[in-house]
Amino acid sequence: MILVIKNDISQKEFDEIIAKIKQLGFTPHISKGVKKTIIGLIGEQAERYKEVFESMEGVEHISEIEQPFKLASREFKEESTIVKVGNVEIGGKKVVIIAGPCAVESREQIINIAKIVKSYGADLLRGGAFKPRTSPYTFQGLGEEGLKYLAEAKEITGLGIVTEVMSVEQIPLVYKYADMFQIGARNMQNYDLLKEVGKTDKPVLLKRGMASTVKELLMSAEYIISRGNYNVVLCERGIRTFEDSTRFTLDLNAIPVIKSKSHLPVIIDPSHGIGIRNFVPIMAKAGIAAGADGIIVEVHTNPQEALSDGPQSIFPEQFKQMVEELKLIALAVGRTL
Ligand code: PEP
Ligand code: MN
Q1: What digits encode the pLDDT tens for the residues 151-195?
Q2: Residue 325's domain spans which residues?
Q3: In a shared domain, residues 291 and 258
Q4: What predicted TM-score, i.e. pTM, was given to this entire model?
Q5: Which ligand is nearest to the CA of 300?
Q6: How far is ligand 2, taken at its centre, from the CA of residue 329, in Å?
Q7: How many angstroms separate the alpha carbon of residue 162 from the centre of ligand 2?
Q8: Can you tell me which atom of ligand 1 is nearest the CA of 102?
Q9: Contact 298, 319 (CB under 8 A)
């Protein structure tokens, strides 16, 4: 249920509405737009007090949000959300580039690649210290050691860190080093994890599960937002289809669909989406043309030797050229890079 608040009420009247909501045992979720202010109340219980709210001074009207995801919907918040990661804004006019290796492999590797991607225009550094691998016998990540190397790379380059947190127990540790939590595709429906990152103040990059619908992705975002963390960026990273000539099928449809249903920023991951190095730049361009707010891309100086996702990691030179081309695409769709 949402309360649409009159434009001309005083702060005192507004505070009274909030106090009343809290007194009745609800958590108000406030969306202050340019045109109107909305207060969201979640749960069927809110219905019982409909008349109380309706009669309150300052409440223009009450309406329902049709979608099952409430706080993530455009009905709740009409204006697009900009998520700030340090001083990088995701969801604004500028297309954002998150780049780096799939996994942190060594101190030298991550510092070297961080310097390279920074010099070619990356805004944030990616790199997993905890890796969700299909096989338990392959490289699982360096853990805290990897997080420390990421911190050093940040110190040297100034790039904020995007890194995966795989479990509730890892949150305090990853919190110390990351500027943005990454929730991987395999954990998109790990509701305990979603709830816990929702209680933090750290931005979250939520990747779409490989067999999840857009609606399920938005419901997962709702878990995070409803706990109080509004800084959620969604990521389309490819879904499983019958097609087996590529690793996954990058669902470009998801971008305009999500943009119409939700106010949250959306980025794409062309690396996992197609899984083939030489096709990554073209899918990155397609994603930006389709309206994505940025990309997350895997880059490696020696992909043949990479400990994970080598075949889809692009060379630094490819990254450099891709960024130059993305500038033109961004311009063509009214964005900057
Ligand atoms: C990754 O970004 O390296 C990764 C594991 O992604 P996903 O969770 O989308 O598979
Ligand atoms: Mn990867």
Answers
A1: 999 999 999 999 999 999 999 999 999 999 999 999 999 999 999
A2: 83-332
A3: yes
A4: 0.96
A5: 2
A6: 25
A7: 13
A8: 3
A9: no
